[in-house]
Amino acid sequence: MENKGHGSFGKLKPLFASIFLQVGLAGMDILSKAALNQGMSIYAFVVYRHAIATIVMAPFAAILDKKVRPKMTLPILIKIMVLGLLEPVIDQNLYYVGMKYTTATFASAMYNILPVVTFVMAWILRLEKVNLRSIRSHGKVVGTLATVAGAMVMTLMKGPVLELFWTNGRINHAAAAKNRTDLHDTIKGGLMITGGCVSCACFVILQAITLETYPAELSLTVWICLLGTLEGTIAALIMEKGNAAIWAIKWDTKLLTAAYSGIICSGLGYYIQGVIMKDRGPVFVTAFSPLCMVIVAIMSSFILAEQMYLGRVIGAIVIIAGLYLVLWGKGKDYKSPSPLMEQQMEPAKIDLANIDKDSFDHQAIAIDVSRRETSIRDEKLQEKSDSIPV
User: Fold this and answer.
1) Which element (helix H / strand E) includes 161?
2) Which helix (H) or strand (E) covers residue 309, if one does?
3) Contact 322/147 with Cβ under 8 angstroms?
4) What share of the chain is helix, strand, coil (3-state, %, to 5)?
5) Count of CB atoms within 10 A of residue 344's CB?
6) pTM for the complete prediction?
7) 90-129 pLDDT, tens per residue?
8) Distance between CA atoms of 47 and 15, rounded to whole angstroms?
9) What is the distance between the alpha carbons of residues 185 and 101, in angstroms, rounded to a whole number?
């Protein structure tokens, strides 16, 4: 019974880890809005975030990954440099700049195409097993589309306001007011957010590929944050044109946001993401990203006293239903070997077949020899019996 319970808990670990990841990202979303509204530079924020993550995670990687960390090679270093550019620099900068041109709600809605982009890329690169004749594959496809549809419903469909007892008398009307944006700014911001989303999907796929040759999640996290800090600093110096004032930071919300985002979202986030991917693949990780909108809506209702609309509740239900379908489809996947495991198992099957064939041949030869010896012995006995006089 204990083993069964332990096995069930082991299966639920990726689920709990993915939810924790989205809770951390939701907290960062709220804090980063406050910091950026206070005038913090986007580029400086990204640099400080990954610098803090590097400092905090490096000692753990040095100690815990000492026995499992492989030797650094040039191909691995190139992959890590690209990883440091894709998510810490391109994705985060494009996302926050796109949010400035549009609104936080619009940015959140656009970013929820991430599961679909990742799913398609993983399918093309054969990192995700999809059989259109299989019900479990249908579940994964429909579930992925449902999570995105639910996120869009949360954003675009309002409906009547739900009167919740904890928001009575403390509605934040300033937060509820609709932000107006120019059409050109909306198009520009939408393109930037889409580019950041594609960059993030590429990051997730490349991280899964890199872990196959560099299976040390903590060390890989530190390398990504370190190179992201260096590459982000270069990007900040270019974009801010030597403005030294952007690097000024005090003991306020800006420092808290950089520390929280660095430790929780970059340090622990990249590490947990890598651990989940080794077991469940990149699609499983990104399938939970629309859940962040649900968590932000709940936290905003409690903390910021924002109004809760019926459309948000319906969208949240659709997202949860879609996640259930994805989890069901992925769960069926792991009752049978994954494509990568099947490729690794194929040579082993051939070797076993050869071994069985060889052993069968040896057994056949041994049986044949024993039969010949028996027949020779029978012939000699027959000759002796014929030579005995009657």
Assistant:
1) strand 161-162
2) strand 308-309
3) yes
4) 80, 0, 20
5) 11
6) 0.72
7) 999 998 888 777 766 667 667 777 888 888 888 888 877 7
8) 30
9) 5
